[in-house]
Amino acid sequence: MKTAVFAAILALCAGCAPKPPLEIHEIEEQMYKAYAPSGDCTMHGQAFLRQRGGGVVYAAGEDVILTPPVDYYFRMISRKYEVREVNYWFKKATRVTVADGNGNFAFYDVPCGEWIVRTKVFWYVGNSYQGRTLIEAVKLKRGDPRRFILN
C-alpha cells in the first residue's frame, strides 16, 4: 500500500515543464529518522465533508497519510520540483492506512509529537467531480483519547 501511495505522489509531482530536482536537506533527513521507529502514541480520527444540501460524504476507502511536518513533504506536494526518488527516511517515517466506510481511521504505535494527516473526500454530481483534499496538523500525546476530525 505504501508503494502505491509513493507512486501516486511521484505521479502527481510529474509535470511537463522542467523543474529543479527535489532534494532533502540533512536536517530534514535527521527529523525523519526521529519519526521512523515505533512509538507510544495512537491517533483515531474521521474524515468527511458536508455537502450544501446537508448530505455527508466520508473518505470511505481512501488512503490516510500521516507524515512528520517537515518542509521536504510540502515541497514534494507543491509540484514545483521534479521528484526523481522519494527519500528512504521519508518513506520509513510516513504511515499509511485506509479509512473505513464511515471515514474512520487509526494509526497505532507512532511516535508522539507533531504530524500532518492527509486524505481526500470526493464525489460526483452528474459528470462533475467535487470535494477536496483534507490536510490537518495534529499533535499526538501519550494517553490522549482525542478523536481528530478532518473536514
If you had to describe this structure to a student in words, what would you say it looks like?
With about 150 residues, this protein is of the alpha+beta class. It has a single domain (about 1-150), classed as Immunoglobulin-like. Helix content is about 25%, strand content about 40%. Strands 1, 2, 5 and 8 form a four-stranded mixed β-sheet that branches. It has a four-stranded antiparallel β-sheet with strand order 4-3-6-7. A hairpin with a 2-residue loop joins β6 and β7. The mean pLDDT is about 90.
Strand percentage: 35-45%
CATH topology: Immunoglobulin-like
User: Helix count?
Assistant: 4
Identify the CATH homologous superfamily: Immunoglobulins
Helix content: 10-25%
Structural class, please? alpha+beta
Count of DSSP E strands? 8
Task: Please provide the ordered H/E string of secondary-structure elements.
Answer: HHEEEHHEEEEE
The biggest sheet, with number of strands, parallel, antiparallel or mixed sense and barrel status, is: 4 strands, mixed
Which stretches are low in confidence, meaning pLDDT under 50 for 5 or more residues running?
A: none
